[in-house]
Write a structure and sequence with these properties.
heterodimer, A: mainly alpha, 5 helices, 0% strand, B: 6 helices
Amino acid sequence: MMDMNAMIKGIRLSKLYWLSFVVTYTYCAVTVYLLLTLPADYYDPSNPQQVLAAVKLTNVRVIIISIGLVIYPLVLLLSLRIAKYVILGLTAWAIAMLIDDHLVLYEIIEYPKRASVAAILELRPFIIITMVWMCFELTFRAGN
Amino acid sequence: MSNKHINRDEIKTILDSFSSYQEEFSKPSKQSKSFKFFIIFFNVYILVCYISLNLVHHGVIIPADPTVLEKGFLDIFIARANGAFWLLAAMNICLFFNIFFKSIVLITLVYCVNSFVDSFVLFGTFVDANRPALSVYSFSRPFMLIALIGLLMTHNPPKRDQQAN
């Protein structure tokens, strides 16, 4: 327990970083929970192909988010240098997903038009900003 | 009363203090032959894809494999090729100025893996005897990923980064 406290104190990062971390982590945990407990009747049955594509993509993304949720805190405790590359990769992936959904796959997939799902999708740019902040902090502040 | 204007000697001193910094940024670091091979391969691959897809899109080239034009495949390929093209430009700029090269390669690798996974999940492997163009595209994608991993492994960072570590 003492070792764990010493490790956390040893990570010298700003309060804004920890705020970004908590916001991102909470968002991801809530997203995973919502997607796993999403009722089948939320999907629009009139577009079966688009719904199937959305379900397939969502399953893959939930798996990757879950892996990120488990791995990132551990990596942060072990090494800031590796944590920088992990958060950089996850941020790039989040941006790639957003660009993909808006520019590439918008005709192929259709997400449920419910408030909870819409909230998750609309909050994505803000979460990406917090992730980009974490990248900058780990690149420029933690390295010094 | 003191003279608030800076004289010629002082201007020269200020400019000289930045000259070494400029040299450090503009001087390319020495890279291995394998790195040069990977960077040339990646540049050629992305540019060939980008140019050929745009030529097909504008009707200059009519594909032998008509399925390329079906199901909105071409729109997806062009959108992805555009993304890869801008990342390639950023990568070359970062390599020239010796800053954040590994970060931009990592971002490109994540972008390509995401595209690869999304396409695989949505459309399958594309490998089909009746779709030669899509099959060639599918078979060549792992080589692109290998080239990106090779760039990450073989990049020789500039001296200032080695000193910082």
